[in-house]
Amino acid sequence: MIIDELIVKAKEARDNAYAPYSGFKVGAALLGKSGTIYTGANVENASYGLTVCAERIAVFKAVTSGEKKFESIAISGSGQGYIYPCGACLQVLAEFSPEMNVIITDEKNSYKEYNLSAMLPQIFSLGK
Ligand SMILES: [Zn+2]
After folding, report:
1. Catalytic status, residue 55
2. With bands split at pLDDT 50, 70 and 90, how would you rate the model's confidence at 122?
3. Domain boundaries in the chain?
4. Which of 33, 43, 78, 85 could form a disulfide with 89 if both were Cys (CB 3.0 to 4.6 A apart)?
5. How many CA atoms lie within 13 A of 82 on its CB side?
6. Which of 44, 55, 67, 107 is catalytic?
7. Which tens digit of pLDDT belongs to each residue from 19-54?
8. Beta bridge partners of 77
9. Domain 2-119 in CATH: superfamily?
10. Where are the strands (E) in the chain, listed by range?
11. Which pLDDT does position 1 carry in this prediction?
12. Cα of 34 to ligand 1 centre, how many Å?
């Protein structure tokens, strides 16, 4: 099942996170419409504001590989409980696929699935 595969890949990606400041590692696995899976992990910086979340790294990898429409993203964090994407990542995902699925996991391998439009019902746009 693709959800299980995405969760496994999100966890694997989490191992490559660079999080020496927070110690909070996050991995993401993004399924493109083509069937390709793009992974990402958070990358922190000594200048904290330059840190980039796992989800956005996965999106940027996909887009710069030529894929701009997505089915789902799974997110796995190193903390307790379900790890939800931040608002910035929701906006970046919505730029490309506002109706995609977002799968969040906890440390016990449970997951919840949401439609992105329910998590961010009013996206920012330039009104063009
Ligand atoms: Zn984020």
Report:
1. yes
2. very high
3. 2-119
4. 85
5. 13
6. 55
7. 999 999 999 999 999 999 999 999 999 999 999 999
8. 26
9. Cytidine Deaminase, domain 2 (3.40.140.10)
10. 26-32, 37-41, 70-77, 101-105, 111-115
11. 80
12. 24
